[in-house]
Amino acid sequence: MTAAAAVLEPSKTRIRVYPMRALPPLIVCRCPSPTAGGLDHSPWRSAMRMRAPIFAGLFVALSFVAAPANAANQISGTAELIPTPNADCPVVPSYPDYSALVMSGSLQGCWYTKILTAKQTPSGVYLESGEELFVGSLNGGSAGTFTTTYKFEAKLNPDGSEIRGRCQHKIVADSGTGGFAGASGRVDFKDIIGGPTVAADYRGHVSLA
Prior knowledge:
Blueprint: H1 42-63, E1 72-81, E2 97-105, E3 107-120, E4 125-138, E5 144-156, E6 162-171, E7 177-178, E8 184-192, E9 199-207
Antiparallel strand pairs: 1-2, 1-9, 2-3, 3-4, 4-5, 5-6, 5-7, 6-8, 8-9
């Protein structure tokens, strides 16, 4: 998979927000029971009929208020380690550690890793840090890339098998290209233990410029 070279053009859409007109004050009252003979509720009903178009107009106006272009996209999905490189996730020599993770969900593409530090304590705590490269897209948008720095922590059994593990991945400022130009944010992984493959669930947020 190759990241698209296209750079998104800045949006030319302008959104104009008009100030809301003040609503007439609502009057809270104890209305007599309709069974009390001779009561005329027509003024109350008339007032509510007059206000109905105002509420409807406010609802329509608010429904068209767009989020800012750099609003955070909440993301989630699954990352699964592939046994060997393939045509979809070929080898990237500068990120040689592990095979690529195939990302599905909000992020779709390939996630590569380069380990910088790693250590294990006598009590079975494993700590790792490094850098990563993601090549793919967000929610089916334009292809691009970004890099991260990460920290991984895991608890291991005496035989080396994993009990639990999680990691935090912060997107490096100004590292985005293509559809991820200007990207910022963070992605958190939580390992899936005992599954048929090496995999993790991820959640986080990505903001685009």
